[in-house]
Amino acid sequence: MKNLILTAILVLTLAAMSVAEPNIMIPKQRWDFGHAPQHSALTHDYVIMNTGTDTLNIIRVKPG
Amino acid sequence: MKKKSLAPGDSTVVELSFNTKQYKTLIKKNATIYSNDLANSQSKIYVNARCYATQDTTLPISWGPDKINFKQEEREFEVIVTNKSDKELNLVAVSAGYDGLFMKIKNDLIKPGNEGKIEFIWTDGFQKEHFERSITFVASGDSETRFTIPFVVEGTNPTPKKSKAKTKPSAKNTSKSPAVKKSDATHDHKSGN
Protein backbone atom coordinates (compact mmCIF):
# COMPACT_ATOMS: atom_id res chain seq x y z
CA MET A 1 0.00 0.00 0.00
CA LYS A 2 2.81 2.37 1.00
CA ASN A 3 4.63 1.60 -2.26
CA LEU A 4 1.49 2.25 -4.23
CA ILE A 5 1.06 5.70 -2.66
CA LEU A 6 4.71 6.56 -3.29
CA THR A 7 4.40 5.49 -6.92
CA ALA A 8 1.28 7.60 -7.34
CA ILE A 9 3.02 10.63 -5.85
CA LEU A 10 6.00 10.07 -8.16
CA VAL A 11 3.77 9.83 -11.23
CA LEU A 12 1.85 12.98 -10.28
CA THR A 13 5.11 14.86 -9.64
CA LEU A 14 6.52 13.87 -13.03
CA ALA A 15 3.27 14.84 -14.73
CA ALA A 16 3.35 18.24 -13.06
CA MET A 17 6.96 18.73 -14.15
CA SER A 18 6.13 18.16 -17.80
CA VAL A 19 3.46 20.87 -18.20
CA ALA A 20 2.87 21.72 -21.83
CA GLU A 21 4.16 25.18 -22.76
CA PRO A 22 4.46 27.12 -26.01
CA ASN A 23 7.87 28.32 -27.08
CA ILE A 24 8.29 31.08 -29.65
CA MET A 25 11.33 30.90 -31.88
CA ILE A 26 12.30 33.44 -34.54
CA PRO A 27 15.30 32.01 -36.42
CA LYS A 28 16.32 35.37 -37.89
CA GLN A 29 15.27 38.43 -35.92
CA ARG A 30 17.19 41.06 -37.95
CA TRP A 31 16.94 42.00 -41.59
CA ASP A 32 19.17 44.42 -43.44
CA PHE A 33 17.68 45.93 -46.61
CA GLY A 34 20.98 47.57 -47.47
CA HIS A 35 20.68 50.51 -49.84
CA ALA A 36 17.12 51.41 -50.73
CA PRO A 37 15.53 54.33 -52.56
CA GLN A 38 13.39 56.94 -50.87
CA HIS A 39 9.59 56.88 -50.96
CA SER A 40 9.33 53.11 -51.21
CA ALA A 41 7.78 50.35 -49.17
CA LEU A 42 10.29 47.71 -48.10
CA THR A 43 8.95 44.40 -46.86
CA HIS A 44 10.39 41.35 -45.18
CA ASP A 45 8.83 38.12 -43.92
CA TYR A 46 10.00 36.87 -40.54
CA VAL A 47 9.49 33.18 -39.82
CA ILE A 48 7.93 32.43 -36.44
CA MET A 49 8.02 28.90 -35.09
CA ASN A 50 6.48 27.17 -32.12
CA THR A 51 9.10 24.81 -30.72
CA GLY A 52 7.09 24.20 -27.54
CA THR A 53 4.59 21.54 -26.55
CA ASP A 54 1.46 23.70 -26.35
CA THR A 55 -0.31 26.03 -28.80
CA LEU A 56 1.44 29.35 -29.33
CA ASN A 57 -0.88 32.32 -29.68
CA ILE A 58 0.47 35.48 -31.26
CA ILE A 59 -1.50 38.16 -29.51
CA ARG A 60 -0.38 41.19 -31.50
CA VAL A 61 2.50 42.74 -33.40
CA LYS A 62 3.31 46.31 -32.43
CA PRO A 63 5.62 48.47 -34.56
CA GLY A 64 8.34 50.10 -32.50
CA MET B 1 0.35 37.36 -40.50
CA LYS B 2 -1.08 34.19 -41.97
CA LYS B 3 -1.79 32.40 -38.70
CA LYS B 4 -2.17 33.71 -35.17
CA SER B 5 -2.35 30.33 -33.51
CA LEU B 6 0.45 27.82 -33.95
CA ALA B 7 0.29 24.19 -32.93
CA PRO B 8 3.52 22.65 -31.57
CA GLY B 9 6.00 22.35 -34.44
CA ASP B 10 4.00 24.76 -36.63
CA SER B 11 5.28 28.02 -38.13
CA THR B 12 4.03 31.18 -39.80
CA VAL B 13 5.41 34.42 -41.21
CA VAL B 14 5.01 37.97 -40.00
CA GLU B 15 5.52 40.57 -42.68
CA LEU B 16 7.19 43.79 -41.60
CA SER B 17 6.71 46.73 -43.95
CA PHE B 18 8.75 49.90 -43.74
CA ASN B 19 8.39 53.07 -45.80
CA THR B 20 11.63 54.85 -46.61
CA LYS B 21 9.78 58.19 -46.98
CA GLN B 22 12.27 60.99 -47.55
CA TYR B 23 14.97 59.50 -45.33
CA LYS B 24 18.55 59.93 -46.50
CA THR B 25 20.43 57.97 -43.90
CA LEU B 26 20.65 54.67 -42.04
CA ILE B 27 17.22 53.97 -40.56
CA LYS B 28 16.57 51.35 -37.90
CA LYS B 29 13.10 50.13 -37.01
CA ASN B 30 11.69 47.34 -34.92
CA ALA B 31 8.46 45.65 -33.94
CA THR B 32 7.44 43.67 -30.89
CA ILE B 33 5.60 40.36 -31.14
CA TYR B 34 3.44 39.61 -28.11
CA SER B 35 2.64 35.97 -27.46
CA ASN B 36 1.47 33.57 -24.76
CA ASP B 37 5.01 32.16 -24.35
CA LEU B 38 5.40 33.11 -20.71
CA ALA B 39 9.17 32.84 -20.81
CA ASN B 40 9.38 35.12 -23.83
CA SER B 41 6.13 37.03 -24.10
CA GLN B 42 7.70 39.93 -26.03
CA SER B 43 10.01 39.15 -28.94
CA LYS B 44 11.57 41.87 -31.06
CA ILE B 45 12.29 41.88 -34.77
CA TYR B 46 14.53 44.48 -36.37
CA VAL B 47 15.09 46.03 -39.79
CA ASN B 48 17.50 48.59 -41.09
CA ALA B 49 17.99 50.32 -44.42
CA ARG B 50 20.37 52.87 -45.89
CA CYS B 51 17.94 55.18 -47.61
CA TYR B 52 19.06 57.38 -50.46
CA ALA B 53 17.75 60.06 -52.78
CA THR B 54 20.55 59.39 -55.28
CA GLN B 55 22.75 56.32 -55.28
CA ASP B 56 26.11 56.49 -53.54
CA THR B 57 28.67 56.80 -56.36
CA THR B 58 31.45 55.38 -54.17
CA LEU B 59 29.81 51.94 -54.11
CA PRO B 60 31.40 49.18 -56.23
CA ILE B 61 28.11 48.77 -58.11
CA SER B 62 25.33 50.87 -59.54
CA TRP B 63 21.89 49.57 -60.48
CA GLY B 64 18.82 50.78 -62.21
CA PRO B 65 15.98 51.19 -62.38
CA ASP B 66 15.95 51.08 -58.60
CA LYS B 67 12.15 50.80 -58.34
CA ILE B 68 9.71 48.76 -60.38
CA ASN B 69 6.10 49.57 -61.12
CA PHE B 70 4.18 46.67 -62.66
CA LYS B 71 1.17 47.68 -64.71
CA GLN B 72 -1.22 45.59 -66.76
CA GLU B 73 0.43 46.93 -69.91
CA GLU B 74 3.97 46.71 -68.47
CA ARG B 75 4.73 43.42 -66.75
CA GLU B 76 8.41 42.92 -67.55
CA PHE B 77 11.44 44.83 -66.31
CA GLU B 78 15.15 44.39 -66.42
CA VAL B 79 17.39 45.86 -63.74
CA ILE B 80 20.98 46.42 -64.86
CA VAL B 81 23.68 46.02 -62.23
CA THR B 82 27.03 47.50 -63.25
CA ASN B 83 30.25 46.36 -61.65
CA LYS B 84 32.36 49.50 -61.15
CA SER B 85 35.04 47.72 -59.11
CA ASP B 86 38.18 45.94 -60.33
CA LYS B 87 37.05 42.58 -58.87
CA GLU B 88 34.54 40.05 -60.08
CA LEU B 89 31.27 40.28 -58.19
CA ASN B 90 28.73 37.60 -57.42
CA LEU B 91 25.13 38.79 -57.48
CA VAL B 92 22.50 36.86 -55.50
CA ALA B 93 18.96 37.45 -54.24
CA VAL B 94 18.85 37.02 -50.47
CA SER B 95 15.18 37.51 -49.77
CA ALA B 96 12.42 35.06 -50.59
CA GLY B 97 10.39 35.51 -53.74
CA TYR B 98 6.71 36.20 -53.98
CA ASP B 99 3.80 34.39 -55.56
CA GLY B 100 3.29 35.90 -58.98
CA LEU B 101 6.79 37.32 -59.34
CA PHE B 102 9.20 35.58 -61.69
CA MET B 103 12.75 36.73 -61.13
CA LYS B 104 15.96 35.59 -62.79
CA ILE B 105 19.54 36.79 -62.48
CA LYS B 106 20.92 36.44 -65.98
CA ASN B 107 24.59 36.98 -65.23
CA ASP B 108 25.35 36.36 -61.57
CA LEU B 109 29.16 36.58 -61.94
CA ILE B 110 29.84 40.13 -63.11
CA LYS B 111 33.34 40.90 -64.33
CA PRO B 112 34.87 44.34 -63.67
CA GLY B 113 33.24 46.93 -65.91
CA ASN B 114 30.53 44.51 -67.01
CA GLU B 115 26.83 44.35 -66.34
CA GLY B 116 24.56 41.81 -64.73
CA LYS B 117 20.85 41.70 -65.44
CA ILE B 118 17.95 40.85 -63.21
CA GLU B 119 14.76 40.02 -65.03
CA PHE B 120 11.43 40.66 -63.28
CA ILE B 121 8.12 39.47 -64.70
CA TRP B 122 4.76 39.83 -63.00
CA THR B 123 2.97 36.60 -63.95
CA ASP B 124 -0.07 36.94 -61.70
CA GLY B 125 -3.23 38.97 -62.14
CA PHE B 126 -3.84 42.47 -60.88
CA GLN B 127 -5.98 43.00 -57.85
CA LYS B 128 -8.27 45.90 -57.08
CA GLU B 129 -5.85 47.56 -54.70
CA HIS B 130 -2.21 48.15 -55.47
CA PHE B 131 0.39 46.54 -53.24
CA GLU B 132 4.07 46.95 -52.60
CA ARG B 133 6.84 44.48 -51.80
CA SER B 134 10.62 44.36 -52.19
CA ILE B 135 13.49 42.01 -53.01
CA THR B 136 16.95 42.29 -51.47
CA PHE B 137 20.18 41.47 -53.32
CA VAL B 138 23.82 41.17 -52.39
CA ALA B 139 26.76 41.79 -54.72
CA SER B 140 29.81 40.25 -53.10
CA GLY B 141 33.46 40.43 -53.98
CA ASP B 142 36.09 41.70 -51.58
CA SER B 143 33.23 43.40 -49.80
CA GLU B 144 29.46 43.08 -49.87
CA THR B 145 27.02 45.61 -51.23
CA ARG B 146 23.45 44.99 -50.20
CA PHE B 147 20.55 46.69 -51.92
CA THR B 148 16.79 46.37 -52.15
CA ILE B 149 14.57 46.86 -55.17
CA PRO B 150 11.03 47.79 -54.19
CA PHE B 151 8.19 46.96 -56.53
CA VAL B 152 4.62 48.10 -56.85
CA VAL B 153 1.86 46.08 -58.49
CA GLU B 154 -0.73 48.58 -59.62
CA GLY B 155 -4.35 48.07 -58.66
CA THR B 156 -7.19 47.90 -61.12
CA ASN B 157 -9.29 50.39 -59.18
CA PRO B 158 -9.20 53.74 -60.98
CA THR B 159 -7.83 56.59 -58.91
CA PRO B 160 -10.82 58.43 -57.48
CA LYS B 161 -11.21 61.87 -59.03
CA LYS B 162 -12.65 64.88 -57.30
CA SER B 163 -16.00 65.78 -58.69
CA LYS B 164 -15.95 69.08 -60.54
CA ALA B 165 -19.69 69.17 -61.03
CA LYS B 166 -21.35 72.06 -59.32
CA THR B 167 -25.01 72.08 -58.46
CA LYS B 168 -26.99 75.23 -58.19
CA PRO B 169 -28.63 75.76 -54.83
CA SER B 170 -32.18 74.65 -54.95
CA ALA B 171 -34.95 75.11 -52.50
CA LYS B 172 -36.03 71.53 -53.07
CA ASN B 173 -32.59 70.08 -52.58
CA THR B 174 -31.71 70.77 -48.96
CA SER B 175 -30.17 67.44 -48.06
CA LYS B 176 -26.42 67.24 -47.52
CA SER B 177 -24.27 65.17 -49.82
CA PRO B 178 -23.19 61.83 -48.38
CA ALA B 179 -19.63 61.74 -47.15
CA VAL B 180 -17.28 60.06 -49.59
CA LYS B 181 -15.84 56.97 -48.06
CA LYS B 182 -12.25 56.20 -48.81
CA SER B 183 -11.73 52.73 -50.16
CA ASP B 184 -10.33 50.26 -47.69
CA ALA B 185 -6.68 49.91 -48.64
CA THR B 186 -6.19 46.45 -47.26
CA HIS B 187 -3.75 44.32 -49.16
CA ASP B 188 -5.13 40.86 -49.52
CA HIS B 189 -2.22 39.70 -51.62
CA LYS B 190 -0.73 36.53 -50.26
CA SER B 191 3.00 36.34 -50.40
CA GLY B 192 4.69 32.99 -50.50
CA ASN B 193 8.19 31.77 -49.89
- Most extensive chain contact? A-B, 41 and 67 residues
C-alpha Rg of chain B, in Å?
A: 22 Å
Low-confidence stretches of chain A: none
Give the H and E element order of chain A.
HEEEE
SS-derived structural category of chain A: alpha+beta
Roughly how many Å apart are the termini of chain A?
Answer: 60 Å
Number of helices of chain B: 0
Mean pLDDT of chain A: 88
Average pLDDT taken over every residue of chain B: 85
Which percent bin holds the helix content of chain A? 25-40%
Write a short abstract of this structure.
The complex is a heterodimer of chains A (64) and B (193). Chain A has 64 residues and is α+β, with helices and mostly antiparallel strands.
List keywords for this structure.
heterodimer; A: 64 residues; alpha+beta; 4 strands; 25% helix; B: 193 residues; mainly beta; 5-stranded mixed β-sheet; 4-stranded antiparallel β-sheet; 13 strands
Topology of helices and strands:
The complex is a heterodimer of chains A (64) and B (193).
Chain A: H1 2-17, E1 24-25, E2 30-37, E3 41-50, E4 56-63
Antiparallel strand pairs in A: 1-3
Chain B: E1 5-6, E2 11-19, E3 26-35, E4 42-52, E5 61-64, E6 68-70, E7 76-83, E8 89-93, E9 101-105, E10 109-110, E11 115-122, E12 131-140, E13 144-153
Parallel strand pairs in B: 6-13
Antiparallel strand pairs in B: 3-4, 5-7, 7-11, 8-10, 8-12, 9-11, 12-13
